[in-house]
Write a structure and sequence with these properties.
The complex is a heterodimer of chains A (about 260) and B (about 260).
Chain A: H1 2-7, H2 17-20, H3 23-39, H4 43-59, H5 63-72, H6 74-87, H7 90-113, H8 116-125, H9 127-137, H10 142-169, H11 180-185, H12 188-211, H13 230-252
Helix pairs in contact in A: 3-7, 3-13, 4-7, 6-7, 8-10, 10-12
Chain B: E1 8-13, H1 19-25, E2 38-39, E3 42-43, H2 49-53, E4 56-59, H3 72-82, H4 87-100, H5 116-128, E5 134-138, H6 146-161, E6 165-170, H7 173-179, E7 182-187, E8 190-196, H8 197-201, H9 204-209, H10 216-223, H11 236-257
Parallel strand pairs in B: 1-6, 1-7, 4-5, 5-6
Antiparallel strand pairs in B: 2-3, 7-8
The chains are: A mainly alpha (about 260), B alpha/beta (about 260).
Chain lengths: ~260, ~260
């Protein structure tokens, strides 16, 4: 189950208008959807925000994978619904379940249609992050590089994890045997090798980077430059307007759940 | 493909030919989607990995994927405890395996402090400890120096003489030439040839097909073919015999002519 959920957050390299949007504008859209969904519990609003994304998912040709990840998330949303059903009114339970699905959809939309490279470039453009990175690590690109590397190593780690599981199962380890405590302890022979592999790999990566002159000089250029297109400005405008409007309504009116 | 007790078999082929996939089929880590794999007459789809591993021990290529204990002794005993051996037997088996693999003086050392070859030997010991009837070695010779390779060869022969079957997945043509086991040659997920190493490794067509390189001795003897030597010589011992014979013939003919 867990693996299928992850599928809904994995980037696939397609050339659609949604993929071509500037990651900064797209991230603003994500915030523009998340802010009202966290401020209000109105069912119509939440359902609306969810439906708005369906055409985007269709244009981005990731709708099928989104449905798959939703199906895998059914268990968690059912849990949220049941817990809230027994502790409050029905409408509230529906709203909170919708909110969960909406958050999942929004993030999965963003990560499915934004390449880690673009994301790294976008983070690199944010002045605050560059400033922070320079203060902490002495180099403005270091933080964004760390982030993209982490994202990129996830698939490699998944392969390693599978091999470790295979190796320990070949030594008679049965993961789903025993009581709860025993089952948790069963994961120690999996986690220790994985952790050590990750540490060793990062040290090797650091050496390889330094051998190739990282971090280089201030003012490094990049092969691809992010540039706002008219549609990006439009998206940015709409998102910002939505955020401002949400806060204004939040402070002036009480919006009912239903 | 069939492995009998006392057999020594090498699975060879280019990267991605399916060697490791084939090895994983043998203890049920992977189950066949077509066809059938049986271990001592039991279908692998009907037994758990732990049950099959008791008979078929797989030593994975990279020891980092399985080492996790604080001491070498614990590492070697891990599988024995999983298989439910009596504590007394565990201690005895661990001692014996450490002795056999020249690891006894490292018993209380952390396996992570050993060098690459040492870790590799601990990984081997961790599987040998429960004395599986069939031993699968995935790339046993990488990270081993020449002396260790020679020891490994003797060790495999010793296991063979005890009636254990050894299957080795490898690229190392020189090592295979030296051992002269049965060879299963794979290419693109299929077995393309089976036979004794000297037949397979001296066959230009097959070598080409599996993207291998001939061992030095086979190269030499394919050149010496014009002097009436057989071409299928891959190991030093046979080469020595043939050359000695030829030299004494030459001496005799020189003596006769004078």
């Amino acid at each position: 189950m867990s693996l299928r959920v992850l599928n809904g957050f994995k980037f696939s390299s397609l050339k659609t208008p949604v993929h071509r949007l500037d990651p900064r504008a797209k991230f603003m859209l994500v915030i523009g959807i998340i802010v009202p969904s966290l401020l209000f519990t109105n069912i119509y609003l939440l359902a609306g925000l969810l439906l708005v994304q369906v055409p985007l998912l269709l244009i981005g040709r990731v709708a099928r994978r989104w449905v798959q990840s939703l199906r895998a998330g059914v268990f968690l949303s059912a849990l949220i619904f049941v817990v809230n059903f027994f502790t409050g009114p029905l409408a509230n339970a529906v709203a909170l379940t919708l909110r969960f699905l909406l958050l999942m959809t929004t993030f999965s939309f963003f990560f499915m249609t934004t390449s880690p490279d673009d994301l790294g470039l976008a983070i690199d453009k944010v002045g605050f992050i560059r400033w922070l990175s320079r203060r902490w690590l002495g180099y403005p690109n270091a933080l964004s590089f760390t982030f993209t590397t982490a994202v990129r190593l996830v698939p490699t780690m998944a392969v390693d994890a599978q091999t470790v599981v295979d190796a320990q199962r070949s030594r008679g380890l049965e993961l789903d045997k025993g009581n709860l405590l025993k089952r948790v302890r069963n994961y120690i022979p999996i986690l220790i090798p994985l952790l050590l592999i990750a540490i060793r790999r990062s040290l090797e990566l650091a050496e390889a980077l330094e051998a190739r002159g990282f971090p280089g000089k201030e003012g490094r250029t990049s092969l691809f430059e992010l540039r706002f297109k008219p549609v990006d400005y439009a998206l940015l405008g709409i998102s910002l307007a939505g955020i401002v409007l949400s806060f204004w309504v939040f402070f002036h009116y009480r919006v009912p759940t239903i | 493909m069939k492995v009998d007790s006392g057999d020594f078999l090498a699975i060879m082929g280019e990267n991605g030919a399916g060697k490791t996939t084939l090895a994983k089929q043998l203890n049920g880590l992977l189950r066949p989607s077509l066809g059938k794999v049986t271990v001592d007459g039991d279908d692998t789809t009907k037994k758990s990995v732990a049950q099959l591993s008791r008979k078929v021990g797989i030593v994975f290529q990279n020891p980092d994927h399985l080492l996790f204990s604080e001491t070498v002794r614990e590492e070697v005993g891990f599988a024995l405890k999983n298989f439910g051996f009596e504590p007394g037997v565990v201690v005895k088996q661990v001692e014996r395996t450490l002795e056999a693999l020249d690891l006894a003086h490292y018993a209380e050392t952390s396996p992570f402090l050993l060098c690459g070859g040492g870790r590799k030997r601990v990984a081997l010991a961790a599987v040998l400890a429960w004395e599986p009837d069939y031993l699968i070695l995935d790339e046993p010779t990488i990270w081993q120096d020449y002396q260790q390779k020679e020891r490994l060869r003797n060790f495999i022969l010793q296991l063979n003489s005890q009636g254990k079957a050894v299957v080795m997945v490898t690229h190392d043509v020189e090592f295979v030439a030296e051992c002269n086991p049965k060879v299963v040659l794979m290419s693109k997920g299929r077995i393309v040839a089976q036979g004794q190493a000297d037949e397979i490794l001296s066959d230009d067509g097959l070598i080409e097909k599996a993207s291998l390189v001939k061992p030095q001795m086979a190269k030499l003897f394919s050149q010496l073919g014009e002097f009436g030597f057989p071409r299928d010589v891959v190991d030093v011992h046979r080469a020595k015999m043939l050359l000695e014979q030829k030299l004494s013939e030459a001496k005799v003919s020189v003596a006769q002519s004078s």
